[in-house]
Amino acid sequence: MKDLLIHQWKEKTRSPFWQKNIWINIVLGIVGLYLILNFLVIGFFADVILKKLLATTDVVEAFARGLFYYLAFDLILRFFVQQIPTLSMQPYLTLPIRKSTLLHYPLMKSIPDFINFLALLLLVPFFIKIICTTKPALFSLNWIITICMLVLTNNFLNFLLKKYFSKHPLSILFLFAIVAVIIYLDMSNIWSCSNYFGSSFLAIAKTPLLVIIPVSIASISYYLGYQFLKLNAYVEDSQTGHRMNPSEFTFLTRFGEAGNLLQTEIKLILRNKRPKSIMLISILFLAYGFMFYRGKNIDNDLILIFTGFFLTSIFAIQYGQFSFSWESSFFDSYMANKISVFDYIQSKYLLFALTSLICFVVTLPYALISYRIGIVNVAMLLYNIGISSVLSLYICTYNTSYIDLGRSQFMNYQGTGVTQFLSVIPIAGFPVGVFLGFKYLGIPQFGVYTLGLIGLVAIVYKNLLITLVSRQFLKRKYKMAMGFRQN
């Protein structure tokens, strides 16, 4: 096991990724340092923050209640961004290593994960500053052991959640509904889960013998993760699950060849890890409206435009910025077949429009908060379908980086370049510029109507716009194909 973990460290430090793009490495370093500093500051000043937010003097009890929300968020975050290193066993399968050792390896490898490191950065400063200085040594020891065991429980439970929800993706919506109901009941003081959790947590910290409870929970979660790997160690042992029926999206055939290409791309999204990760993360981001649609923000048209743009195009923008790169592994076969460039571009336009419409329908209940939200979101839906889609496809003709569909989305910047960063300026900057222009004229409300009208006109003349993108694609396709071969 020790040698396997040493191999893991060498794999990370010697990865060719770090030599490919120095600018991306710099950006990753800045982002990582920013997260580390933020978690350290929040952990160190947690007592001050809790006193201001909750007006309480018992920060230890308040922190214990807050752990309920942190651990819930931590588990959801792990599901979307933490990779399960099961493929790390593959190079060792032909070597004389015991199967049990190989099964323990991915579980042990997941312990020094970056998310676990962030959890320590948040919890340890509070432990050193408050717990160690105000509580007995035995209480402090039980407190930190319980914290570590709960974090490890989330880490090992992630193995099971990934497996279950990969087979039942729609169950994620049910999970979010349960979490939303629990949070609502807690914040409304109807049934305070955080109080029960906080009281139980402090009771364990005060009673030395009870510390066996979190240790047992972590051990059970580790055992379940081990059993999961054992049951899925061989492909031939796994049960045949649901397979996508080629006729499931036959309604798209009404769009002709573009509809057939759209069917293929939808299957690409559902069957491959990275695009599927983007889809699942986008579902989570649809709840961002609860953060923005509150208080004075309801009367701020600029915030409503920004949020409406974000909510109605969250998946389309994230997925669309890598258009053409998703097919990089078989791009040459597309170019060699008798596929109309117009139909090929139109299929991506239809995907952009379809996903934007779905996001709009899902977020439509936000209009119950204020009718102005509904008006703005309709305008931004039209703008995204008419303008954002075309701009995104045009800019993506400059994509020349290969993308491995089987890799996870988290901390994966394969295919990311200057094009992705610069594309945000015209796509998101145009609606802001239009609104600010009308605001300068003293009629800001007309900015929303103008954006909707511009989007509607673009939809009417979509064939002309798709033709313009098709001409640009014809100019760039050989450079794109050459870049996609450099994998």
Describe this structure in words.
- By secondary structure, this protein is mostly helical.
- It has two domains: 21-237, no CATH class; 250-484, no CATH class.
- It contains 20 helices and no strands.
- It has helices at residues 2-13, 22-44, 46-54, 59-81, 99-109, 114-134, 137-167, 171-187, 193-206, 212-231, 257-271, 273-285, 289-292, 301-320, 331-336, 341-362, 371-396, 418-440, 445-460, 462-484.
- Helix 6 packs antiparallel against helix 7, helix 11 packs across helix 12 and helix 18 (418-440) crosses helix 19.
- The chain is globular and about 75 Å long.
Strand and helix layout:
Elements: H1 2-13, H2 22-44, H3 46-54, H4 59-81, H5 99-109, H6 114-134, H7 137-167, H8 171-187, H9 193-206, H10 212-231, H11 257-271, H12 273-285, H13 289-292, H14 301-320, H15 331-336, H16 341-362, H17 371-396, H18 418-440, H19 445-460, H20 462-484
Helix pairs in contact: 2-6, 3-4, 4-7, 4-9, 5-10, 6-7, 7-9, 7-10, 11-12, 11-16, 12-14, 14-16, 14-17, 14-18, 16-17, 16-20, 17-18, 17-19, 17-20, 18-19
Counting helices, strands and paired strands, the structural category is mainly alpha
Q: SSE order in H/E notation? A: HHHHHHHHHHHHHHHHHHHH
Shape from CA axes? globular
How far apart are the first and last residues' alpha carbons, in Å? Answer: 32 Å
Total of DSSP H or I helical runs spanning 4+ residues:
20
Number of strands: 0
Question: What is the strand content?
Answer: under 5%
The mean pLDDT is 79
Main sheet attributes: strand count, strand direction, barrel closure: none
Q: Extract low-pLDDT stretches.
A: 235-247
Number of domains: 2
